Amino acid sequence: MKRVIVLASLMSLGSIAAVVGQSPESVLDRIVPEQPAGGPYALSPPLPDWSDGAALSVARAAGIVVGFEASPEVKEIGAIENDIATQIKSRQRVSLAGKTVREALDTVVAIDPRYRWSDVHGVPVVRPWASWTDSKHPLNQVVPAIAWREIDLATAMTRVSALVSGQQISGTVPGSGRGPVFSIQTGPIAVMELLNSIGLAHGGGIGWSMRHHCSSIADPRAIYLEALASDGQQVWGLGSCHRPTGPGDLEP
To answer: Which carries the bigger pLDDT value, residue 140 or residue 24?
Structure first.
């Protein structure tokens, strides 16, 4: 049976990971501290096909979980090539330090009105407006109950990748063994909320992101999923390209 979620059900979906969450009040009212090198910053005006990933920078600085989906025309999040570097220099850097998380995200979407952010069960998520109500969007698909025991971030993201692509992934998981070990147990859950639950179970400043461009897959439907975590000293990421299955075809 095909099941999807739209914005109205996002706020009421009762099945969420059995993990210690971040309460909406404490998260949204938390002050974003200034980083040693300055910032975090949001660039103004935004570049049409590149994202500075400001929402993810807020997650790392404030030590919370944040989700971010790039606009369909965005080809890279954060990666700076030579041509992008020249354009970045012409932009104003707007500091998000000293603001609450709520104020920082309000600033991000005010600078780039392609996006809307919402509090999804205590996790701020920034997405293009249309994505919130797109019944065919891969992140809005609902998968059956999840019961993953004693996994790390790399293993969890690999399993999400299998859900999204419909392909089982075997062999050694790149990046496994790094970071904390945790468990995820949910009822039926949207892929987006599953990503949020993984972040909450992992803990600390962590962000997941999705973009609609994958250089390794020649399919306009292909998406790139990535999780960025910090161990307190280094920021490290796990990402891969996937060709999503159709709505209703996702299995645990």
So the answer is: 140
Domain-wise residue ranges, the chain? 7-242
Which residues partner with 151 through β-bridges?
182
- CB-based contacts of 182, cutoff 8 Å, min separation 6: 19, 150, 151, 152, 201, 202, 203
Pick from 226, 238, 235: nearest CA to 176: 238
Whole-angstrom distance, CA of residue 98 vs CA of residue 116? 22
Q: Is the pLDDT of residue 14 over 50?
A: no
Answer for the pair 127, 69: CB distance below 8 angstroms, yes or no.
yes
Q: Is 38 helix (H, G, I), strand (E, B) or coil?
A: coil
Closest CA to 31 of 93, 94, 96, 95: 96
Q: Which residue has the higher pLDDT, 90 or 237?
A: 90
Q: Count of CB atoms within 10 A of residue 153's CB?
A: 26
Q: What is the mean pLDDT of the chain?
A: 83
Query: Given the DSSP bridges, would you call strands 189-190 and 142-143 parallel, antiparallel or unpaired?
Result: antiparallel
